[in-house]
Amino acid sequence: MDDLDIKLLVDLLRDRIHPDSSLGQHFLLDENVINRAIEIASNNHPIDSSSHVLEIGPGPGSLTLSLLRKNAKVTAIEIDPEAISHLNRVFKDQKDNLFLIEGDVLTTNWPNDITHIVSNIPYQISSPIIDQIQRYNNFNPLLGISILVQDEFAERMSMTSGYSSRGPLGHALWLDFDVELDMKVSPHSFSPSPRVNSRLVKLKPTIREEKNNLDHRLFTMVITHCFANRRRKLRTLLSNPPRRLSRISGWHRDRWNSAIKSISSEILELRPENLSSLQWSNLISHISIQEFESRT
């Protein structure tokens, strides 16, 4: 690998393909961004020969190269067969450390011993990928995660730009991660350049006691229901149950109406964006517990 560098990898792939924007093919060229992505994923648990790193959409292998130079085992999931062929060629001497999977990351089974995730993820499927990372972490706790996403999406993940950035995405992530925004990345750091700025984000797995008594599915459903009309007050929003509520075992309209009666008028006068993640957690736990107690 000593004869490889990031620009060469990108040029070699671009000689063979025309980047497909529908696949999010904006290839990272900036070595500083790549080094920082690995650094923030390694803050608490260094990436080394004992690590198994998942990379989503490796493309030309810019990030892959740096991960392999850390002596890490890397599993890379890539949907483009030409990119897979390219990666097999340029990393032909790394078959003991690099495992390539051709397929859709949203439908492909991930190895069950991943320790870190470091990826420049396709912007158009950022939400479902984040959801999949969260589900994976619940069953296979991760040591470090850094992802490169669209800047606006990063703000919604972290909810650090005021009430307007609060929403279902950030509240759902709060259950399992501390979200930390890192360096901004300009379009010129990619080939071809996207039309938007990007941002490195660190997801630090965390354990929240509030999650112990929380129905995760109900939490997500209620918040999504309320933020669909974020300018209305909770009194109006909660007067009707979320769609598909009955798909959660034990829940139906009568139970919902009974539970909502236990919420204080002070809370009901608020709008969805006024509540922090902790307040949402307490509210939805309260709904479940009050209803349970009223039936026993």
Key traits:
about 300 residues; alpha/beta; Rossmann fold; Helicase, Ruva Protein, domain 3; 2 domains; two-stranded antiparallel ribbon; disordered C terminus
Strand order, biggest sheet?
4-3-2-5-6-9-7
- First-to-last CA distance: 66 Å
Total tally of structural domains: 2
- What would the CATH topology of the largest domain be? Rossmann fold
Shape: elongated
H/E element sequence: HEHEHEHEEHEHHEEEHHHHH
What is the number of helices? Answer: 12
What is the secondary structure topology, with strand pairs?
Layout: H1 6-14, E1 27-28, H2 31-41, E2 52-56, H3 62-68, E3 73-78, H4 81-90, E4 98-102, E5 116-120, H5 126-139, E6 144-150, H6 151-158, H7 168-174, E7 177-185, E8 190-191, E9 198-205, H8 216-227, H9 234-237, H10 253-260, H11 265-268, H12 277-295
Parallel strand pairs: 2-3, 2-5, 3-4, 5-6
Antiparallel strand pairs: 1-8, 6-9, 7-9
Helix pairs in contact: 2-3, 8-12, 10-12
